[in-house]
Amino acid sequence: MRLHKRKYPVAFFYGPERLGRTTPASMQVVFSRDTVDGDKITGIVGTLRNPRKQDVRALGVVAILSVQFPRTGAMQHEHEHLCDDLVDAVTTEVGDWCVSSQAGQPEWVESRYLSEEEVSGAELGAGVHYIIRFRISRGVYTRDFDGAGLDEGTISKATSGTEVTVNGQHEEVI
Hints:
Elements: E1 10-14, E2 27-33, E3 40-42, E4 53-67, H1 76-100, E5 107-113, H2 116-119, E6 128-141, E7 162-166, E8 169-173
């Protein structure tokens, strides 16, 4: 994300991971795949330009933003104000990235502050915690497997034989 270029003192992680870390301004974002709402597979809308494209798969993503105003004794609204700025920055960056990678606009599923009950017992720092659920579309194409397949080998010579017993004598027949 380009937020560092825009002077946001934020740390990014790919999770799920513990959120007890702090950065200089106590801003962090943890991205992970959405295991609650998951992905969504839909048919193709509009004209088909690529005959290999079968469907569209919208990948479910969760971003948890943790923000703590960098002053001891900060009030709730100060944490929230700083978090609102980060939410706006993250959503615009995700939108810009989706458009530049030709994934279209992201589908926003959920965006809200986490309640104290949801945070209770988790290793989250002080301040406020915000969740954003969204989906990023990608094409599903007919293609061959490009990864590592099973080992291949060639047989240089093969023989087979059968053992035959005639009048008590064993003999191998090839």
